[in-house]
Predict the structure.
Amino acid sequence: MTSIGPSLMCADMGNLKSTVRELDQAGVDFFHLDIMDGLFVPNFTMGPDLIKQIRPFTDKPFDVHLMVMKPEDHIDLFIEAGADMISVHAEAATHLQRILQNLRNKGIKAGVALNPSTPVEELEYVLDVVDYVTVMTVNPGFAGQKFIPLMYKKIQRLRELIDKEGYNIQIQVDGNIGFHTIPEVIKNGADMLVCGTSCLFKKELSLKEAVQQLNTFLEQRNPQKEGMI
């Protein structure tokens, strides 16, 4: 079962409300919102005020990906803005277990994001407080980068670790997730797809058409596709 989450950093910011409405009606499973501070990654993106503005236009979960230093200082802001799920980078968190436990205590799904070079073993002693892991399949910061091939192996190793330890944790993949990479990431254990310019935000297709095309592609590989959020 595979779920689809459009990456709103790839959307037309001037028409974000209508984009959210259209994607919601097209049947996406969640919305992925990248937050960048210009320090942890060399770029700036959305803030809590923007998230508040679009929150009324969908009931689908908001998955907030904090690519920021000291993520613990910003969590409450994004919960108040409407986040349902928050992932923090293992590389940016000094006390990762505390942050994840705090998210769960607040009723938020707790996620950990891993940069391409960060080994899955970083998660071994926090798996009991993790709901999902975001495997970055490109180096974070910019849209339109090429998929790093070794990430297929990383997804597989992460799935093996989760299954071995007996936890119910989803694997999200983020970065150049398109028709050429989706079959292999699913085969290796991913079940949440963050979708951007590689498969959803296409000039030649409406958003509805793009979602339908992607759903058809997934159903051909998994006839029982359902949202997992």
Q: What stands out?
A: The CA atoms of residues 183 and 221 lie 8 Å apart. The longest strand covers residues 31-36.
